[in-house]
């Protein structure tokens, strides 16, 4: 009777082996996909940080220009003796 079980047990073992191989292949695919997504997130984070730095630089430059223009307006108002324009 044990001779009858051996082919069945062998087939079950082979089936389990292929099942494990398929699972490992699927796991490898998921890990590769996860790695790709993590790299995309990292690249987008870097780009966002770069854009934020660029916006901060633009904001500082704009604020400096506004400050200089306001100083120029006050200077011209003092020279002409006019009252300052308020909004």
Could you characterize the architecture of this molecule?
The chain has one helix spanning 2-80. It is mainly alpha-helical. Helices cover 91% and strands 0% of the residues. The protein has 1 helix and no strands.
Map the helices and strands:
Elements: H1 2-80
What keyword list fits this structure?
1 helix, 0% strand, single chain, mainly alpha
The share of residues in extended strands comes to: under 5%
Order of helices and strands: H
**Shape verdict:** rod-shaped
**What oligomeric state best describes the polypeptide chains here?**
single chain
What percentage of residues falls in helices of 4 or more residues? over 70%
The average pLDDT value, as a whole number, equals 87
Largest sheet: none
How would you classify the helix and strand content by structural class? Answer: mainly alpha
Q: Provide the low-confidence segments as ranges.
A: none
What's the quick description here?
With 87 residues, this protein is mainly alpha-helical.
